[in-house]
Design a protein that fits this description.
Beta Polymerase, domain 2; binds magnesium ion; 398 residues; 4 domains; 20 helices; Methane Monooxygenase Hydroxylase, Chain G, domain 1; alpha+beta; Hydrophobic Seed Protein; 52% helix; binds adenosine-5'-triphosphate; two-stranded antiparallel ribbon
């Protein structure tokens, strides 16, 4: 019996496929996480039915990845990914194959999966199919490839990054043969698209055991084939030595960019093909971090950084300095009690200054506005129009 709600919700989907004469099983990460007692997010179903047959069985389906055999089946308003058993025998360029071959055998499907812990299946009665010793490896917390590690990494080099990110997410260790093959085949990672590496790196940075995982990148030499990290062994070694377990992915990116490219993090982050929005916010956090480290966490620096970057910079800085100079916890609450939180909150504008001073536009406006912001942040003057006007006169700024 399966007493997990996500799995139970999917039982009718499996039952319908079986009634139609096909095999269907739970597979992949959800089965692993169920056995591990970790939270399960979405369950994947594998079936002997080819996509056209899946679509004939269910009324509501969406073709989400039909070329790879994946159909989204909608049942009771919930979507379940149903994927045809397949092999991926044709590999070129050490990348995921462009073509998949549908097969009728569950065993063949499990055999093409990356690690033993990810190559288990469970039927609708909660019985396990575990041809490669996944359960035992989970019990001993080991990441081991299905089949010979060197071959599996030559087929798809991204699997080496997946191994490293599972170290972070699951706090597992690499099996010796798997680790040795990673060290030997690390250069194949050069063939993999940056977007796929980024996806794994984000997951690595989001897991708990980031330090151990970064150490794996160093020990296996994988880092040399990651964007902007070749030649960065000292920086990465430093990162692996920091208490970064509780940091968010973007906070780790902030620390990493600071350690690898302090002068200008933008090219580093661009190499990783991060979305522009994240490049902007992470590089702002790095700038804020540099200010925090140089001048401490002052109200002015918090104002300049903005909430998100201040929090991320404080968290990264806390890890970098061992908490000696920075207090990450209070960055957010201190930011919240600032009299103004952004330029737009200031009670006056450049036009007010032009009017009050009867002067024409010019660089003086920016200067006076910044003096005003500083004074408001320092609580020298309340953020109120008439008070500010009086203060400006008193300081001879008008
Ligand atoms: P997560 O919890 O992060 O989703 P996951 O194990 O479910 O982890 P997915 O990327 O969702 O990872 O992949 C689902 C399953 O597909 C894996 O458990 C594994 O069986 C298989 N798989 C994914 N990527 C590969 C790959 N590159 N090579 C072989 N099998 C893979
Ligand atoms: Mg998954």
């Amino acid at each position: 019996m399966i007493d997990h709600p996500f799995f139970r919700q999917a039982l009718p989907v499996i039952a319908r496929l079986e009634e139609a004469g096909f095999e269907a099983f739970f597979v992949g990460g959800a089965v692993r996480d169920l056995f591990l007692g970790r939270p399960v997010h979405d369950v994947d179903i594998a079936t002997s039915a080819v996509p056209a047959e899946v679509k004939a069985v269910f009324r509501n389906t969406v073709d989400v990845g039909i070329d790879h055999g994946t159909i989204l089946v909608l049942h009771d308003g919930i979507g379940f990914e149903v994927t045809t058993f397949r092999t991926e025998s044709e590999y070129t360029d050490f990348r995921r194959p462009d073509e998949v071959r549908f097969v009728r055998s569950l065993y063949e499907d499990l055999k093409r999966r990356d690690f033993t812990m990810n190559a288990m299946a469970m039927n609708k009665n909660g019985e396990w199919i575990d041809p490669f010793g996944g359960k035992e490896d989970i019990q001993t917390r080991k990441i081991r490839t299905v089949g010979r590690a060197g071959e599996r990494f030559s087929e798809d080099a991204l699997r080496m990054m997946r191994a490293a990110r599972f170290v972070s997410q699951l706090s597992f260790r690499l099996d010796d043969d798997t680790k040795e093959a990673m060290t030997e085949h690390a250069p194949l990672l050069g063939h993999i698209a940056v977007e796929r590496k980024l996806n794994e790196m984000d997951k690595l940075f989001s897991g708990y055991d980031k330090r151990q995982a970064v150490a794996v990148l160093i020990e296996t030499g994988l880092y040399q084939f990651l964007p902007g990290l070749d030649g960065q062994k000292p920086a990465l070694t430093r990162l692996a030595g920091l208490p970064i377990e509780g940091l968010t992915a973007d906070q780790v990116w902030t620390a990493a960019a600071y350690l690898c490219a302090e002068e200008d993090p933008v090219p580093f982050l661009t190499q990783w093909r991060l979305p522009q929005k994240r490049i902007k916010s992470i590089s702002r956090s790095v700038r804020t971090l540099i200010q925090f480290l140089a001048k401490g966490v002052t109200d002015w620096q918090l104002f300049q950084g903005g909430l998100q970057s201040s929090v991320d910079a404080a968290a990264a800085g806390y890890a970098l300095t061992g908490g000696k100079e920075l207090d990450a916890g209070s960055a957010a609450s201190r930011f919240e009690s600032l009299p103004i939180k952004s330029r737009h909150d200031l009670a006056i504008t450049g036009n007010d200054l032009i009017q009050w001073a009867s002067k024409s536009r010019g660089p003086w406006i920016k200067e006076v506005l910044e003096r005003t912001e500083r004074a408001v942040i320092a609580r020298d003057v309340p953020n109120e129009r008439t008070e500010i006007e009086r203060w400006l006169h008193a300081c001879n700024l008008l």
